[in-house]
Amino acid sequence: MSELFYIATFVAVAAxxxxxxxxxxxxxxxxxxxxxxxxxxxxxxxxxxxxxxxEIIIYAGAIIVLFIFVVMMLNLxxxxxxxxxxxxxxxxxxxxxxxxxxxxxxxxxxxxxxxKAPMLVSVVAPRNVSLSLYGEYIIAVELAGFLLMAxxxxxxxxxxxxxxNLHRYLQEEEDIKQK
Length: 179
What we know:
Blueprint: H1 2-21, H2 25-45, H3 49-74, H4 78-87, H5 90-113, H6 126-133, H7 138-159, H8 168-178
Helix pairs in contact: 1-2, 1-5, 2-3, 2-5, 3-7
């Protein structure tokens, strides 16, 4: 069981470092998804399946969708569409796919091999989680919500700017269309 923990830890650290060092936001988001999945595998190998599922649903699901939405709002125009076509080549998906495949193999090994000693898993009811989040941690939950909302509003504000073409031939075409 400990070797699976170390494999997931290695994948999490590697994917996080790759997410931090990528220049293109789409590449960074791909590695961030792999990092979130690896952290979920760490929780699963430690005997916390509820936390692992929450990690996948909340972070690898909802937060990544929010990040993709913000990236899509910021990348407007024909130039970015051509750039995205270049980004979506198979070589871009190779390393994230290999890291995710490693996590899949680890999960299958974890499920098939099982543990010799029974794993002590305590059941955590969703009611207890909600009471904890909206009880003693309400300030942190509200601050996280405000931070995410500020990010979306900021991205919408940045995405609203109008781009002017600097090339004189393109500007003349626009002047003819407006007349």
